[in-house]
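Whether sequence alone determines local backbone shape is best considered at the level of individual chains. The sequence in question and its structure tokens are set out directly beneath this paragraph.

***
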Amino acid sequence: MLDSEGGACPGCGDRARPWAWKQGHRLERCVGCRTVVARPESGSPPSAADYTLYHRDADFRMPELVQASLDAVATLAEPHRRLGSWLDLGFGEGALLRTAERHGWRCYGIEVSPQAISFGRAQGWSVAEPPAAAESFPEKGFDVVTLIEVIEHLVDPNRVLAQALAWLRPGGLLYVTTPNADSLNRRLLGPHWSIFCPPQHLTIWSPRGLRAALSRAGLTRVRLWTHGLNPVEVLARVRGLGPDTPVHRQHAADSLNRALTRSAGRRLVKRTANGLLSLVGAGDTLKACGERPDPGSG
């Protein structure tokens, strides 16, 4: 039986209530903003999964299917170019930094994976591992700081957001993506949605919760939108498969993306669906951007 009280929401700061148990963790859902937080069953402080081997078998190839999305991020960043420097926290296989470099940016990155660090250095980027990264990169030294599918993994996301803001120059852009706690998949699947997978994912943010966290960190001109829908798990339930049946979300997403980009008509369908999902805030991915205040701009 779930207790009646949970901890404080890392987003809006309101009270979270127990919602479900999963993988030895209690999932707590904020009563104010619907952000979902995973806390260990033992009551001990949360700890993130070990990501040092996460990219051990990676081939570090540029995924063609996401290139248009990455170019869109570079376009979003272009008006903020002043120093010409871009820092990606958790750069993984480097797809975003390779895109930024192709658009003329000097690239910097932070990772815990030794394989990713070696790859980044081979590309000529300035890369570092935490906690040394805090001393490796200058405060106010970057036009753009990005966190792509990172903040859901963090034990203390608000501290990392504050550090990201410190690295930004005044007027610089912070860009974040993370799974959406208000997505259609969450509404249909509840805690059985595979995105709820502690200790890998510790916080699944709602738009309201992420907006509150970004504003509290000090960002201004915060803008949020949602994108995409992977229906593979819902379709599995429709076919009568149980919630514990393994599904390959990424493979299914890649196949669906290929199918929807084979013709102009299908691409139109995809854009229309994404527009509708964003309009109602029900896409799988939550995207947000904001700026570090620039006292001199007024």
The longest helix spans residues 264-279. The domain at 16-41+49-227+283-291 is CATH 3.40.50.150 (Rossmann fold). The chain has one domain: 16-41+49-227+283-291.
